[in-house]
Amino acid sequence: MTQTTTLHDRTVGQIAAQLPGASGVFRRFGIDFCCHGDVPLAEAANRRNLDLGALETALSALDPAAAPDAPQDTGALIDHIQTRYHATHRRQIPELIELSRKVEAVHANHPEVPRGLSDALHRIWGELEVHMKKEELVLFPAMRRQAADRLAVPISEMRHDHDDHGAFLDQVAQLTHDYTPPQDACRSWQALYAGAAQLKADLMEHIHLENNVLFPRFETTA
């Protein structure tokens, strides 16, 4: 199949940006398509000890002509990022901080308690709020004006922030045993891990749309 043969020559970020539904496949296989989107597909599969053929089969089953996962127009894409992801993070992270504090306090003596999770969430919340404000007040307005010649430095800074956000996701995965609560977990504990897993999915998609779709439109090539 022609689509399968072309996958070898593309990075996971390019595939996620160009093939509707690919990001969902990558999440299912545990592939980082946002912060490490510059990795070729075969290398990404090798890093995860995955069957490359199975991964390619899953991607080839997607319809390239399907509706895009996000708006294609730059202005509409920026609007989508702000309403779907910025607004969502501002709602979900404070709720997770409060829930995590409750779980850590009530189950302080449990051997699997996610000790330190609330601190990690509080730290990323502060960093992410500053990051989003920079985008909303400086970067996104410049992009709407098509001021590409002045955006190399701020885009580089945003990409660096995204790497830090990816490290945070790795930390949360470790603290939560990959978002798997113990068998005796209460409903609050289960809700915390479900919410943390949703935050991971949302933040990965958010970073992907910026790193692999939006930012490249304003980065000059050598």
From TrEMBL:
<dbReference type="InterPro" id="IPR019903">
    <property type="entry name" value="RIC_family"/>
</dbReference>
<keyword id="KW-0408">Iron</keyword>
<dbReference type="Pfam" id="PF01814">
    <property type="entry name" value="Hemerythrin"/>
</dbReference>
<feature type="domain" description="Hemerythrin-like">
    <location>
        <begin position="79"/>
        <end position="217"/>
    </location>
</feature>
<protein>
    <submittedName>
        <fullName>Regulator of cell morphogenesis and NO signaling</fullName>
    </submittedName>
</protein>
<dbReference type="GO" id="GO:0046872">
    <property type="term" value="F:metal ion binding"/>
</dbReference>
<dbReference type="Pfam" id="PF04405">
    <property type="entry name" value="ScdA_N"/>
</dbReference>
<dbReference type="InterPro" id="IPR012312">
    <property type="entry name" value="Hemerythrin-like"/>
</dbReference>
<dbReference type="GO" id="GO:0005737">
    <property type="term" value="C:cytoplasm"/>
</dbReference>
<keyword id="KW-0963">Cytoplasm</keyword>
<keyword id="KW-0479">Metal-binding</keyword>
